[in-house]
Amino acid sequence: MKQGDLVVRKSYGGDVLFRVAIIQEETAILKGTDYRLLADAPIVDLSVVGDPESSAVARQARIKAAESTMKMQEQREQQMMERELQRAQSQPQPYFELPGRVLHLDGDSNYMRKSMQLYTQMRVPAHGIYVHESQMADVVYRLLPQIKPDIVVITGHDGVLKNRMQDDLQNLASYKNSQNFVNAVRIARQYEKSKDSLIVVAGACQSHYEALLQNGSNFASSPSRVLIHALDPVYVAIKASYTSHRESINLADVIHGTISGIDGVGGIETLGKFRVGLPKPKTLTGVKPTV
Questions:
Q1: Rounded distance, CA 64 to CA 34, Å?
Q2: What distance in Å separates the CA atoms of residue 220 and residue 32, rounded to the nearest whole number?
Q3: How many angstroms separate the most distant Cα atoms in the chain?
Q4: I want to staple 100 with a disulfide (CB 3.0 to 4.6 A). Which of 14, 62, 150, 283 is the partner?
């Protein structure tokens, strides 16, 4: 077994497909390939998976991801058709679209890459930064005034600790990175207090949902402390980006549109960030200088 191998844990019945990140003597540090989970396991408890498609759990996660993406694309196309019809009836001039701008901080470089691919696919303007969870508060403090996003995503790896001091899931010390996410959310809210001016999406697998909301997140994971898919925070951000600034984001729609569903993601009423403008910029040719 070596770094980079795909593995499953025997003791968990192969419930999650992992990639080996680090090997430390007889223990391996693991990162979920589809879920935002960081774990460790004895090497003897691991089985190498040669073909990721042989993992039923991984296949199911990818099927759900594809279905969520397709649903999002269909909703976006429907939105465009409805807007075209409304404009044709009331204002025939061609318009342009301004979806909400996203700043995405991710504690996993592979998830960061997948997230940016989905933003690009859905034509959402996004600035992505790979940064360790412990450094996210500092990076949020530095980048928010520079990027001036409409939506900030704060995510990476998290999980309930096996060797926690006490069996208290309301204690932030019981989580791998929830305190780091909370610290970053607090900085974001110091920068912009209005939850409609800056939308904050925060959390990862099994994160302290209540603490994230209490400290200023609009959307967070994980209400039932379940694993969330790597792209769930991205789906929420895209939905916020393409919901009109005059409309509240449909909570049931956005939550059930994620792969993890209502056990994995929750949030509060929030206005969207999408705007349209007139006239549509033209290709300027033959303009004569006047000065």
A1: 11
A2: 19
A3: 78
A4: 150
- Structure token pair of residue 157: 């790896």
Q: Is the dihedral of CA 70, 73, 78, 81 positive or negative?
A: negative
pTM of the model: 0.85
Q: Residue type for 23, please? A: I
pLDDT in tens, 86-124: 665 566 667 788 999 999 999 999 999 999 999 999 999
CA distance 252 to 273: 18
How far, in Å, CA of 190 to CA of 65, rounded?
34
Residue 57 pLDDT class (50, 70, 90 cuts): low
